[in-house]
Write a structure and sequence with these properties.
This protein has three helices and no strands. It has 78 residues and is mainly α. The radius of gyration is 23 Å and the shape is rod-shaped. It starts with a helix and ends with a helix.
Amino acid sequence: MSPKNKIALVFIFSGLISAVGLILALPSIKGQRQMTNTRIINWSSSDAKISGFFAVGEVTKNDLRRVPPAGSDREREI
């Protein structure tokens, strides 16, 4: 086998190993994005706590147009 063919095989196998590693890591990465502590947020009350640090009024800047649709990705991210 020529040196060029050996180098080509090394690149192919290294790419394959990287792809397998990525596929194995994806379920854990996706799991990190999901909220673990789901609770219902009262978006109509500006004093309702979203977290230990923020209230609804602070996140929406007291503008009801900024309230995310129920069940949307944006609401889950908040």
